[in-house]
Amino acid sequence: MELKAILSPIADDLRCVDDLIRQRLTSEVALINEMGNYIVNAGGKRMRPALLVLTARAFGCQTAEPHLLAAVIEFIHTSTLLHDDVVDESVLRRGRETANAVWGNSGAVLSGDFLYSRSFQMMVETGRMEVMQVLADATNAIAEGEVLQLLNIGDPDVEEARYLRVIELKTARLFQAAAELGAICADQPPAVRKQAAEFGHWLGMAFQMVDDLLDYTAPPEISGKNIGTDLAEGKPTLPLIHAMRHGTEAQSGMIREAIRNGQLERLAEVLKVVESTRAIHYTAALAASHADKAHAAVTGIPDSPYKETMLALTRFAIERDR
């Protein structure tokens, strides 16, 4: 099922979020406006804003506050993407040239800084200390995850636990924050906020694992990025970690060398080992187990179209092809 159809119960909310994003991207600096429009028009799944709005509506919030915080979450996410693309020297995202490929590294980094600082301006408008606490903790965790991932690049000795810690910080933490903020918008007590946060955490973990396996399975015309990008960047993601752990000594040695040197020319060989060791199956199964935990975290919420959409997202996260 297409994501747009899944999110139909909050279609009007998401249009409001998009309108707010465009309004708050405006600046006196022409380059920021130009890059902002480019970034917004690049699309994206808007998973994190959708998660925040869904959680808020599922817990009974009927105000417009989720729109503001959903835009904040998207600004934070987009700023990390801008910085990521510079660090990774990426040239393609969502089937289009990255901002750094168009405007250079300096423009991309500084525009990311603008989005990040604008997000903090906006979150202050809520006047809720708990909102600022959740987002401050989340952004700090994301930065830690980015640094940890940087340390992992080119290191074939990264183990599964270290990989999981990276995606917990780098990806799942913002999903977690989005869901918890939805519960805060609905003025829910700490126990319910914790339940919402757990849903976001497990969903984010599953989502990132699938992203990492799609790097070895999804054609560029579907995924919007080149296959084997993680290998080219020397990133030891779970499919490679599993393949090294279960391949022959020669196969493991070949993958280790490819990770150390970012050898995309050895992609075909790597893919054969990934397939023979069932690394994609292993990654998909682990992602599914995390999605099941996200599903379980939602079961106690009162029935509504929003709850059904949250449950549908747990399936979408692991069944998608892009």
From TrEMBL:
Keyword terms: Magnesium, Metal-binding, Transferase
InterPro entries per record: Isoprenoid_synthase_dom_sf, Polyprenyl_synt, Polyprenyl_synt_CS
Needed co-factor(s): Mg(2+)
PROSITE patterns to which the protein is assigned, alphabetical: POLYPRENYL_SYNTHASE_1 (PS00723), POLYPRENYL_SYNTHASE_2 (PS00444)
Keyword Secreted tagged: no
Residue ranges that the Swiss-Prot or TrEMBL entry lists as coiled coil: none
Similarity field: Belongs to the FPP/GGPP synthase family.
Protein name: Polyprenyl synthetase family protein
